[in-house]
């Protein structure tokens, strides 16, 4: 297992560099002078030149590229133009909030989505299947800020069951969990819908395989056939989708954090946008890339856990 | 014409896509007929009648400037639809061409192009859109470019795969033997064979485009106020959520209806065009 992890880690490095290159290209091909954007039209040429030097954009493009890659790979993401603190410090301060939200919604999505998907597949073209399919399509169609606001209106404002403000005390576990409930449901609903649909179609495919028929023919109890023969094989596409969806989830958490007024990466990114904190934005983009690469890595490792053949390949 | 006939055949077999199409057409009609059905000017302010609940006079109530929410909703459909349709068309044309050419040329070039597309694909659409709009500045044109860029990779992928297969088929070889140019082979012989897959993709990604547009407007990076946009209306309404919940409810339902109709359409079309599911 350790060997497998090490191999995967090594293989992730070129991806990371490639993704960083794309970030660099996106930030550089955008027209306009970042120094001018930050300081405005009224800035003196001296001030502009000073900021360009501070941002490192007065150097030749290739030198900028190498500076950027080496700094990013050694964990130096620059400093915020507004607070002057290192980007990494600002991010680490709020990261627990975002991780809480992403992980809890993933757990909710899997815990509900997989059984619902299996159920729909077993009841194919019957009432339960239709209901699950339509409801999951509605769930997928909700932009998270809309579902978040609707949940907030019903459960926080009308019934007053949950707090309106999501800023929680990280040390107080009860408070932390309590304030996580509505945001988790908001983000988790989309995840449930997604996982349900993928599980259903993967199960349908697996259920028509010969080995499932053989298992049934030799008298294996239905419960065992579903769990051991069908579901285990259907889980591979589900894991792929969960991995892909984690990226979308990170994006959606931005909106959830705004609606529930929670601290987190989303809040940081929106603040940086409003303050035109160019250095912070670039650093945040690198962090998002890093999170995405880590997610892909975890997805690969999950394949290895589910399907022993993957590890040997 | 053969393509259209095939498309109608696909529609005929699938009820879900019909319902989705009907809803989508209704919303498009609402946007087109906005000057006639909105009743009042969506920008007209009436400070005395601010934050009024829904009534016979103002069907969906009024906002904090006394503007009619119904009129703003009807006009807002135009922004949602025009931004997402333009963005998806742009993504389809540019991404589709990249995929066609990349698959047709093949070799190292193909590998490199697809690598770049894979990386682009790994970014969450919202984050990528957010950063591009932030750097370009919020305007309708920039919004379209940003959303198109997030949807580029899937279109490149979807046109590339069938191109790889189709280019090996005999009729393409025959065309080449007859001395047809690459352009003619690609657009006259390869393209018609992959139109249905591309259309399914387009309707599903339209749903994403609508969502990203609404989300960016909600964050404050959409088309500038006072132009009514659904996401922007929710953003403004969110500040008055205690006194005037209707400001969030109606635009929220409108966004949901549009995305749901596109998802139904795409989902139904996919089931109908997927040979694996069609056979059963």
What is the strand and helix layout of this fold?
The complex is a heterodimer of chains A (313) and B (280).
Chain A: H1 2-29, H2 34-39, H3 45-55, H4 61-73, H5 87-122, H6 127-141, H7 144-158, H8 173-178, H9 181-207, H10 210-217, H11 222-259, H12 265-274, H13 278-306, H14 308-312
Helix pairs in contact in A: 1-4, 1-13, 5-6, 5-9, 5-11, 6-9, 7-9, 7-11, 9-11, 10-11, 11-12, 11-13, 12-13
Chain B: H1 2-12, H2 15-32, H3 34-37, H4 69-105, H5 107-122, H6 125-136, H7 140-150, H8 152-166, H9 170-177, H10 182-190, H11 195-219, H12 230-238, H13 246-273, H14 275-278
Number of contiguous helices of chain B: 14
Distance between the termini of chain A: 13 Å
Mean pLDDT metric of chain B: 82
Topology pattern of chain A, helix = H, strand = E: HHHHHHHHHHHHHH
Radius of gyration of chain A: 23 Å
Total strand segments of chain B: 0
Biggest sheet of chain B, open or closed, and with what strands and sense?
none
Q: What amount of the residues of chain A lies in strands?
A: under 5%
Q: Any idea how many domains of chain A?
A: 2
**CATH third-tier fold name of the largest domain in chain A:** MetI-like fold
CATH architecture of the largest domain in chain A: Orthogonal Bundle
Average pLDDT rating of chain A: 81
The H-and-E topology of chain B, N to C, reads as: HHHHHHHHHHHHHH
Q: Tell me the name of the CATH homologous superfamily of the largest domain in chain A.
A: MetI-like
CATH class of the largest domain in chain A: Mainly Alpha
Radius of gyration of chain B: 22 Å
